[in-house]
């Protein structure tokens, strides 16, 4: 499938040039769903090896506007693997304790332990996205954060954490449909927060902030990928493919033990 | 199916009287597997409502000797639900930081947040099991822990945490088979730790410690259940049935929102 979604280091991205409905690299929906099934199964097996090896971990960072499908990605790609060895951390409005530390503190605390897959549903990138758009800290502080994030992620990768970052790219029109669904279905009302519409009003500012983030923080060691996300099946297929290939490249191995299995008698 | 596995408050249990291969309450294996499938699916749906409601949580505590199937239970019962809203905490040998606190500190830290299911793979009960058998703290301290645990769990339940505790009851013969499998299959060597055989040598002492735990800590608010676990399908069927019924009794509901959905226009 190649890797058409990856942002090269230093590359400038215009999100308006990227079609959130693009499925060109995927073939038909049926084919993509078939591959997703196989990928999810392979990810499960590879996770087992990662856990057995116990030396490295995988961190999957999901960012995107409201309704872009961060929860749906977890379900679609990681449900076969299950909760054993996969930990999801949702980054909400920071607590007082978290605010009393630097912005990377809570991300570091949630870093996946060796042998596991960690998924960040939102992440430290909120601190150069919503925090920037709403001007919650001075612009000069934001400016320093891109390099701080890159250094932080570099340190993680040098210590055995492989990092994958996916920006779920949905259109403003698709978001309207999904928000409307939440209004129309009483079972989905709880997912809707009238305050979310403020972010929608600042759509352009958010896209600018995303573009800067993609430009400044897609590194050799922790690249961003932009995932067309208007179609859920396409979004899942792209991400599952990258996760599977990444785990295959990591090639975790069952550890050799230091004792002789034949010498042991169980009584 | 009734609830034949539950230990009544104050009840004295002799584990040697309970057959680890018992499947009397379950019908045929095929029937039990069919129900497991339906139960796992129902648990997924109920978890979604629990998450939407966001007010209460479920804590599932799994205890048992090595190879009794704690990991297997997580896979068998909770893989359909997936990692979103389910968090597994494995209680390993305590760290220096954990040892510098009371024995309930790390359990409290891992308590499930509202709206989620937390699974303890081993738990604070290790502090009245292995710690007791290996005499790692004075007997007079152990003696106080049963009531301390009961008070801790009572506090949790009074604050919205429903607690289910399962002792996975396997026979010494079944453990031998499972340990031997780990020795025979190079892919399973990493699961085998020669030190584990020490626990096996103290099998009788462990059973005594389990019996005291079951007698002293099966409360109205947080009952123990003894699950015959020599047969994996039976173990999963029993636990899934209890989890499902417990969530059904909790009956989490989609919250009513304070705003009028019809008044909101998405532009």
Automatic annotation (TrEMBL), chains A, B:
Family: Belongs to the polyphosphate kinase 2 (PPK2) family. Class I subfamily.
PANTHER family associated with the record: POLYPHOSPHATE:AMP PHOSPHOTRANSFERASE, POLYPHOSPHATE:AMP PHOSPHOTRANSFERASE-RELATED
NCBIfam families: PPK2_rel_1
Protein name: Polyphosphate kinase 2 family protein
Polyphosphate kinase-2-related domain boundaries: 29-252
Ranges of compositional bias, category Basic and acidic residues: 14-27
Species: Alsobacter ponti
GO molecular function annotation: kinase activity
Region (Disordered), start-end ranges: 1-27
Keywords annotated in UniProt: ATP synthesis, Kinase, Transferase
Any coiled-coil regions, as ranges: none
Pfam families, sorted: PPK2 (PF03976)
Chemical reaction(s) catalysed: [phosphate](n) + ATP = [phosphate](n+1) + ADP
